[in-house]
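User: Before I run my own analysis I want an independent prediction to cross-check against. Here's the chain; please return only the structure tokens and, at the end, one sentence I can use as a sanity check.
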Amino acid sequence: MKIRNAAGPAVITAIALQLMAPGGLPGQTPGSVPFIQIDAGKPGARVSPMLFGLMTEEINFSYDGGLYGELVRNRSFKEDAKEPVHWQLVQEGGGAASMALDPSQPLNDAIGTSLKLTVTQAGGAQRAGIANEGFWGIPLQPNTKYRASFYAKASPDFRGPLTVSLVANEGGAVYASARVAAVTGAWKKYELALNSAAGTPVSAKNHLLISCAGKGTIWFSAVSLFPPTFNNRPNGNRKDIMQILADMKPAFLRFPGGNYLEGNTIETRFDWKKTLGPISERPGHMDDAWRYWSSDGMGLLEFLEWCEDLRMQPVMGVYAGYSLRQVRVKAGPDLAPYVQDALDEIEYVSGDKTTTWGARRAKDGHPEPFHLECVEVGNEDQFDREQGSYEGRFAQFFDAIKAKYPKIKVISSTAAGTRVPDIVDEHYYRRSEDEMASHAHDYDKRPRTGPKVFVGEYATRVGSPTGNMSAALGDAAWLAGLERNSDLVVMSSYAPLFVNVNPGGMQWATDLIGFDALHSYGSPPYYAQKMFTNYIGDVVLPIEEQGVPTRTWQPPAGGRRGAPDAPAPPPPPAQQVPTLFSSATRDTKTGAIYLKVVNRAGAPQPVRIEIRGVTAVEPKGKVVTMSASAPDDTNSITAPTKIVPVSSEAEGFASSFTRTFAPYSISVVRLSAK
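Assistant: Structure tokens:
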């Protein structure tokens, strides 16, 4: 056993005796204590400033019905070609009317269908109109201003007025209301403020109602309702979810994300040019990868403003000519328009106002260019079954991007050989805590040749709809490995980021942040990542673990191979997987050392910690711990903070000390050292 300590031979002997008792090396006897040695005198690689960030895509109703503030569902009447889904006809007090989709009265080329309301009986107590149910309801708060808008036109016999109201589903209480005195015979935009009363209950059991008290025909399009948004963006995001993200201090946002970028077909990819401009000019598209309609209200500019609001670097994915149903564009002349589209997109983001697409961005309301360092070509192109397809496509994109933007780092979505990417994107989903933990040292062994690594998607898939404490422990073990290897792994992001927990809102189990129409919460894996992002230095410190306890993990058996009657292959051998993981970084400006320790065991774990290369360690410090009584404990809409990190002042620190870590826990020990 090799023990080193700047405190001198006497201390070394004492530590050695304590660690070896009652006999043998650490880990060989029930009474032994694991040993972590940190060499602060020989700092390693600088921690990548982009190490921890966010990955996002439209899945689990992440944008529409989630982060994106729009409260009206099917606002442009395009979700279903035959029926105005999520809209209801209202006939009260003897009022009579009919409604139907009308393709003969388009608002414009982008929105080719309107909603036609024909009122045949109205006046006095008689009322007719249309109501929208929202995304699992319209959430309301008291004393709040909501911004409503819509386009409308009317037949000559309609005199108005129109009344726009926020109404309770049960009992019909009206919590806010405003009127449009008259509607013209040509398409016109109408905007109103709806101010909820002081007594408005906090509830999502409400709907938006547009009603009239006169006969005639009215056509509607682009009906919208927004609550107050983060930073008061007109087409902005929910304040509560944005604050959860801000608290993570993410370094970047990878967008528009995963399968949503590719689509199942070329036609249903994220076509960024169709997401620009006013919402009344955005056609929207079917997110067929996850089987629901996307309004494209979260367009390219909104992604960039999201980055701006949270001070994140944009990491933009560009469509690379491959869609999920094995539809692809052949490299060469056929691919050239898509390469040019990517160059246009980069110009929209980073070009000045003298460029074609920089001028378009300025017209859209953002004169200043955004800072763009990284562009990813495609997403998970390893699933393209045509041999060599990505090689040719990536080379064409790589050459074109580097020729025009030589400083941009080009990320490949899988291994590429004919061109060496600056960074390669690797995705890891593990179906158990032990499986994730078994890979936590993978990058320790990876050669330092070739491109840097972006772990663009990872998750321990335990828990639903969001990860539980077991998932958090697996993720934290993995994150410790990424942090230790920040010379190689320069970026990482969990996926999926969001899930709408309402019935029918989830397409993928085990997500980071959950929400319904009114509330949002962070899962234990969210808080694990937050602990890593909030407590980190700028250099990696070499760390050596000895005597780390393990437990037996049986990897799942593979499926049958060969002929149908062939015997199943033998199960893989059992593995010994550590229950203790650690990493350490240092802030070179303040001298603070951040030691992260993950104890996956169900019992308290004493650990002997030695810090070399320092002259003194302050006896007082800070410890942040997240723990649970059982690995399947979790957070939820009804118990959003059941498991959260707890910060406390601590004493007894020195260049050599012992600390006991709670069962099922993730801890950050902050030490001040000279």
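Sanity check: The first helix runs from residue 9 to 20.
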